Amino acid sequence: MSGCSGNCSSCAGSCSDGKKSPLLDIKQKLFVLSGKGGVGKSTVAASLAILLAKAGKKVGLLDVDFHGPSQPTLFGLKDVRLGGNEKGIVPAEKYGVKVVSIGLLVDDADAAVIWRGPAKIGVLKQLLDEVDWGELDYLVLDFPPGTGDEVLSACQMIPGEKRAVMVTTPQEVSLADCRKCVDFCRQVEVPVAGIVENMSYFVCPDCNGRHEIFRNGGGQKLAEANGLSVLARMPLSPDFLTACDSGKVAEGLTGALLEELTAAAEKIIADEK
What we know:
Helices cover 34% and strands 20% of the residues. By secondary structure, the protein is α/β, with parallel strands linked by helices. The chain has a single domain, classed as P-loop containing nucleotide triphosphate hydrolases (Rossmann fold). The strands form three sheets. An eight-stranded mixed β-sheet has the order 5-6-2-7-1-8-9-12, with helices on both faces. Strands 3-4 form a two-stranded antiparallel ribbon. It has a two-stranded antiparallel ribbon with strand order 10-11. A hairpin with a 6-residue loop joins strand 10 and strand 11. The longest helix is centred in the middle third of the chain and has 16 residues, at 172-187. It is globular.
């Protein structure tokens, strides 16, 4: 496979073989980021992709977490392996979302991916240049935590409109890293669409009481300090987590969780340029 030269800001979306970048047929690229691992970034990425598709948008989802790809599990695609055509890799499709993940390309989904930075960036170039997405309204990218090789290279290589959704939990140990991620987006000139506060609260199924297990208001404080909006406050939902583990992420989108994330998707659509 031939890769992009890696400097699409100067080649205006043309790759090293002279072909037009398939990313130019995608109107919006939505980076789902967090400075902290374990905050639910992958479930937010999957949920937003599904709800954007339900809103009538053409949506793709690229899992860029090479060392811990979660999207095959969330979408129930762990046993699927991607094929190709003359245009490149053909995504899997479920819930109206086209899905590509390294977990759908390796022979053994449980084998560790042991790659240094240059190898990861080489694969990232191939995935950005050689997937047959077709025309999309949104490509949602699920990144590993932090501001390292993958997200920095994606910012440099992906042409066109890019926005970020920042995922955090309410406590300071998460917010401290997310502040760095917001600053990263500012430095690389990727606008932040807003903040998603995950695990914001828990509603007891017995007493129906609302409990803020991981403090409260951290996402709002992060948003206010950076002139951003809060897109959603996601409750901690055991039913949703069970659905995700079972490969039925869409079926788990119910109740307050569905309301919050639907509102987030609507805000993202409303802010389209």
